Amino acid sequence: MECKNCELRQRQYYCANCLRNHLRDFRLQTHHFSSDRNEHIARASRAFKSIESGRLLRAEIARADHSLDQLADSLAQVRRDCENKRDRLRTLRETLAQRKRTLHAARLLPPQSQTLTKESQELSVLSQTIARARSGLVQELVEVFHIVEVGGRPAVGGRAGARGEWTVGGLVLPVPGDVRRYPPDHINAVITQTIHFLGLLTFYLGIKLPFEVSWSCRRFGVGMPWIGAGRGTESWAKWTAKHPLHLTSNPSSTSSSPSSSPSPTLPVSLADSEAPEQVPAHGQNQSFTTGLAMLLYNVCYLAHSQGVEIPLSQAGDALSNLWAVCCSGELGRRSHSTTPLLLPPTPPLFTLDFAQVLQATAASPARAARIRPGRSAQEAGISNMRSERIVEEEDGWDVVELGGEEGFG
After folding, report:
1. How many CB atoms lie within 10 A of CB 208?
2. Is 179 helix (H, G, I), strand (E, B) or coil?
3. Phi, psi of 31 (to 5 degrees)
4. How far is CA 324 from CA 27, 30, 142, 349, in A?
5. What does residue 100 show for φ and ψ, rounded to 5 degrees?
6. What is the distance between the alpha carbons of residues 409 and 406, in angstroms, rounded to a whole number?
7. Residue of 260, 252, 295 lying closest to 180 (CA atoms)
8. SS3 398
9. Which of 26, 131, 155, 359 pairs with 44 at a CA distance of 20 to 30 A?
10. With b meaning 16 or more CB within 10 Å and e meaning fewer, what string describes 24-33?
């Protein structure tokens, strides 16, 4: 419809009379429905009053059932706790009984001081037995490698004695200053013999050395020997680079005489495919000298571990020092693998510094006579060769006269 005044269109349009009629009808209906509602409520209340006693009884029964279930659960929990406590009590009783038996057995044992004394005595006897076994093995090792002193003479009639040369397997191991007087094959052979002897000696004695020897073919005794520092915290531990313990022959060298052969070059080389790049001769000399100093330092430390103190002035004579170790009264008593245990290398009591040994090895003069001013090198070499070959027979001793002053060792 459309209002003629405001022209508003609506779906339904009621006048004031119609609205009043509708409101009256709504009020009448509401009054009627309220009466019906009140009547139904009154009827329901009367009906509930008749069954109220039964409902209350059922509620009480349900509450009692719920309480009974809770009591049953609590009883089951208490039973489980009691069972656990019985098991714990049984375990405690067994433990107490075991402790009582142990205490009773301990009371029957002799005093602890006597037990410790007995164990200490047995350990001491075992250590002495091991030391004797090691000493026997070392003596056999010395005989196998045939370590002896050749030449020299004792002091007789106020005449000063002379020192001989130490050999291993029939080969002379020179002091560092005399290495150039021998061909490289001789030096390689005698150093390899010394390395094998030192390795077996330390294996028998159970000693760990500061510097470790490795081989170019990665198998023990196969290839060329190299040496480098092992694990440690002392000053020698920083020398971790591997240095050679071998020489290579000079192709131009043809003489095999120790006194007449020219000074061989001292290159650093490995066998087959493991050969490093060539370095200058001066660097090669230093590398071999450093490796030899490491070997001498190992010998000095081994001697210290067996109760023999080697001064720096005698550190270069390796075989003589090894002989002193084999003849030590403390041989085999201390070790890194059996009691009494030694401290890891090197302990504070070992005061010899590797830098001192290296410096002395690099600066060691040869035993051969030096060339005096005014003499030619050829004349000096002939005189030196003659003085080294003079052999005297005196009281059964073979005496070799050495010209000049003695060097390291």
Report:
1. 17
2. helix
3. -60, -45
4. 135, 131, 12, 19
5. -65, -40
6. 8
7. 260
8. strand
9. 26
10. eeeeeeeeee
The H helix count followed by the E strand count for the chain is 7, 8
pTM above 0.70, yes or no: no
Distance (Å, rounded) from C-alpha 175 to C-alpha 50?
Answer: 129
Closest CA to 226 of 286, 317, 177, 288: 288
Neighbours of 236 (CB within 10 A): 23
| 3 state SS of 153 | strand
Tokens of 353: 């510094």
Burial of residue 294 (CB within 10 Å: 0-12, 13-18, 19+) is buried
Q: What is the pLDDT along the chain (409 residues), one digit of tens a residue?
A: 555 666 666 666 667 777 788 889 999 999 999 999 999 999 888 888 888 888 888 999 999 999 999 999 999 999 999 999 999 999 999 999 999 999 998 888 777 666 677 777 888 888 888 888 888 899 999 999 998 888 766 656 566 656 788 899 889 998 888 888 999 999 999 999 999 999 999 999 888 999 999 988 877 777 889 998 888 778 888 888 899 988 876 543 333 333 333 333 333 333 333 333 344 444 555 688 899 999 999 999 999 988 899 998 889 899 999 999 999 888 888 888 777 777 888 888 888 889 899 988 887 554 433 333 333 333 333 334 333 333 333 333 333 333 333 345 4
Q: Computed from CA positions of residues 322, 326, 330, 333, in that sequence, does the dihedral angle turn out positive or negative?
A: positive
Closest CA to 266 of 290, 242, 295: 290
Q: Reduce the DSSP state of residue 23 to 3 states and report it.
A: helix
- Start-to-end Cα distance in the chain: 138
Q: How many CA atoms lie within 13 A of 286 on its CB side?
A: 7
14: Cα separation from own chain's centroid: 108
Structure tokens at 201: 């000696």
Q: Which residue has the tokens 């009547």?
A: 39
Q: Please give the structure tokens belonging to residue 287.
A: 């590398």
Q: Three-class SS of residue 165?
A: strand
Q: One-letter amino acid identity for 316?
A: G
Whole-angstrom distance, CA of residue 286 vs CA of residue 288: 6
Reference 243, options 294, 297, 318; nearest CA is 294
* Contacts of residue 231, Cβ cutoff 8 Å, sequence gap at least 6: 237
